[in-house]
Design goal:
Elements (H helix, E strand, L loop, with lengths): L2 H5 L11 E2 L14 E8 L2 E8 L14 E3 L10 H6 L1 E6 L2 E7 L2 E7 L7 E8 L10 E8 L10 E3 L1 E2 L1 H7 L1
Parallel strand pairs: 1-3, 4-9
Antiparallel strand pairs: 2-3, 2-5, 5-8, 6-7, 8-9, 8-11, 9-10
C-alpha cells in the first residue's frame, strides 16, 4: 500500500493534516536497522517520519533492540520513557517470521486475510522532540496466538484502526 492509503485509515484527505516527506522509501521488505515510516503525535499534530528500526539509549552497551514486550514495556528501565512519551504506529502490509525446519529457516509472510494494512504498536524516539539521546523505534510484541505460535512464540501487537487512532 502507499503511505496515502495507510494515512486514509486515520482521516479523509480533506481533514488530514499530517506532515510527511513525500519521497517514497521504495522497498517491499523492511529489515531492522533501516528507516521505517512511523506515525506519532508531535506538537498535537500527527507526524509521519522515517525512523531507524532499532533503539539503544546512551547507557546501553549492546546492539540496539528491535522489539519491546508489551507485558513489561511500561515499567522497564529501558522502555518506560518511550511508553510515556513515544508511542507510535508502524504501518505494514504484513511481516515475515522465520521458523527453523531441520537445518533450514523457512520464511512465513503473515498478513490479514482481507488485505487491509497491519497497524503495529511501536515505541519510538526521534531526533525532533522526544528529549532522548537516542533515535530509533521498537515494535511492541505480545504472545503469539491464533495459530501463530506454530511459527514463533511472539508477534507484533496489532491494533485495529480505532485503537491505533487513540494510540497515535
Amino acid at each position: 500500500m502507499t503511505r496515502e492509503e495507510y494515512l486514509s485509515l486515520f482521516a479523509n484527505e480533506a481533514d488530514r493534516n499530517i506532515a510527511y516527506d513525500p519521497e517514497p522509501i521504495g522497498r517491499y521488505n523492511v529489515a531492522p536497522g533501516t528507516r521505517v515510516l512511523l506515525l506519532s503525535e508531535r506538537d498535537e499534530q500527527l507526524q509521519l517520519d522515517p525512523v531507524h528500526w532499532g533503539y539503544a539509549p546512551g547507557w546501553w552497551d549492546k546492539p540496539p533492540l528491535i522489539n519491546a514486550r508489551v507485558e513489561t514495556a511500561a515499567s522497564s528501565r529501558m522502555f518506560k520513557h518511550l511508553w510515556q512519551h513515544g508511542r507510535a504506529i508502524c504501518f505494514a502490509d504484513g511481516w515475515f517470521d522465520w521458523k527453523r525446519e531441520g537445518d533450514k529457516k523457512q520464511p512465513y509472510f503473515i498478513n490479514r486475510n482481507d488485505g487491509q494494512p497491519i497497524l503495529m504498536a511501536a515505541l519510538g524516539s526521534t531526533p525532533f522532540e522526544r528529549g532522548d539521546e537516542a533515535e530509533g523505534f521498537l515494535i511492541v510484541t505480545a504472545a503469539a496466538d491464533n495459530g501463530l505460535v506454530d511459527i514463533h512464540v511472539r508477534r507484533p501487537l496489532v491494533l485495529v484502526p480505532d485503537a491505533a487512532r487513540e494510540r497515535a
